[in-house]
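S.,

Sequence below, as promised.
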Amino acid sequence: MGHKEGMLILFSGPSGVGKDTVLDIVLNKDKSLQKSISLTTRSIRENEVDGKDYYFISQDEFQDMIAKGQVLEFAKYGSNFYGTPKAPIDKWLSEGKTVILKIEVQGASKIKELYPDSVAIFVLPPSMKELESRLRSRGTENEDDVIKRLDIAREEVKRSKDYDFIVINDDLESASNNVLSIVKALDFSYKRMNNYVSEVINNV
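The prediction came back faster than expected:
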């Protein structure tokens, strides 16, 4: 039988919602999923692996890739750039893989324009109060940062209407299972199964 079409899944949510943890659990439960790896110009930290956590490149290399159209979207945080490389995603999609790309809300709309068949999942907190409590419990941000992140989160949550699926992270296990259910359902969408449909018709 023919191979399945590749599928790009965009995965977003406000800071503090736990999307990294949910994604780690999802990738651990379904080894067939391919996580997209971002580019960054920041220095590699202890315990990080180049090509696994990020592709660590220089500012010059980053600018060169942008000029050549090899970066789908990028943003600058502080003095460092972060971006999504185009080549690995196209390669994985051509191999029929399901690729999950963790991305900020602004970047997601750019990717959606470039890959209109991509599917977007937004991870929502049970409430803004719970999100505030999670941000505070991190202990990594001062009061001004918490307030700033909550303001950004409110704006991002408003943009969740542009997404195809909403997953509420009130419990990590159930949130990760809900993401896997969405991925499984997409496996059987017409877009992914059309090669099989053609073969069934042609092998009458």
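The domain at 37-96 is CATH 3.30.63.10 (Guanylate Kinase phosphate binding domain).

Coffee later?
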